[in-house]
Design a protein that fits this description.
The protein is mainly alpha-helical. It contains 6 helices and no strands. The longest helix has 23 residues, at 9-31.
Length: 107
């Protein structure tokens, strides 16, 4: 198909997984109401791990705006981070968030 030929699937999956890691880490840090240095370390660590993971198959940008700024107009650099971010937040809400999980069990 035309899409499979025009999309670099390795880049798309790498950006998706890297952004998933970053987003889930940030959501967890915010959900646990970390502040100050603890919040900064958690966000910085999540970003670092996300970039390292994404760098296995892409440039590790994790941000469509950065990709456009670097003239990387590949669909993979746009769709991967967007889908990864949505999945990372959903993973936090449905798996990692204890308050959300407890309220589902009570129903």
């Amino acid at each position: 198909s035309a899409i499979s030929k025009s999309v670099d699937w390795r880049v798309l999956v790498a950006e998706l997984v890297g952004t998933f890691v970053f987003t889930a880490g940030v959501a967890t840090a915010v959900g646990k109401q970390l502040e100050g240095a603890s919040l900064a370390l958690a966000v910085g660590f999540s970003l670092t791990v996300g970039i390292i993971v994404a760098s296995v198959g892409s440039s590790g940008l994790l941000n469509p705006a950065v990709a456009v700024g670097l003239h990387s107009y590949s669909l993979a650099y746009i769709v991967g981070p967007l889908v990864g971010g949505v999945l990372g937040m959903a993973f936090y809400k449905h798996v990692l968030d204890a308050d959300s999980t407890k309220s589902k069990k009570r129903r």
